[in-house]
Write a structure and sequence with these properties.
HIT family, subunit A; single chain; 21% helix; binds adenosine monophosphate; alpha+beta; binds zinc ion; 2 helices
Length: 110
């Protein structure tokens, strides 16, 4: 079972932000911004390459609710999903990084 499936199953503890029937969101263990939350489907889906459009539609609403709950909707934030090796994906269970709480910059990526 992958790391994030273990978090879903509460075999590994996490600092939960929001949970519903299909998704959970928890604070990243190694934050790179004042707000750094990961939103994931409870079902194991490898990456953005494998996600169904209806699940994307549902997680859109879930992420909007996280942003409201953490009070970053108005100030602004960033959503990132890394895909595969060159995309920098370390955990092979799709996750959306939700980053905010400060002015974010756009670094040189290569
Ligand atoms: P990625 O590089 O896009 O696959 O992102 C994986 C993210 O998972 C990184 O930002 C890690 O800091 C984060 N991470 C790894 N293990 C844990 C954990 N046990 N709880 C919360 N976040 C984690
Ligand atoms: Zn998984």
């Amino acid at each position: 079972m992958c790391l994030f499936c273990k978090i879903v199953n509460k075999e590994i503890p996490s600092n939960l932000v929001l949970e519903d029937e299909d998704f959970i969101a928890f604070h990243d263990i190694n934050p790179i911004a004042p707000v750094h939350v990961l939103a994931i489907p409870k079902a194991h889906i490898g990456s953005f390459n494998d996600i169904q459009a209806d699940t994307m539609a549902k997680i859109t609403i879930f992420i909007q609710n996280i942003a409201k709950k953490l009070n970053i909707s108005k100030s602004g934030y960033r959503i990132i999903t890394n895909i595969g090796n060159e995309g920098g994906q370390e955990v092979k269970h799709i996750h959306f990084h939700i980053l905010g709480g400060a002015q974010l910059h756009w670094p040189k990526l290569t």
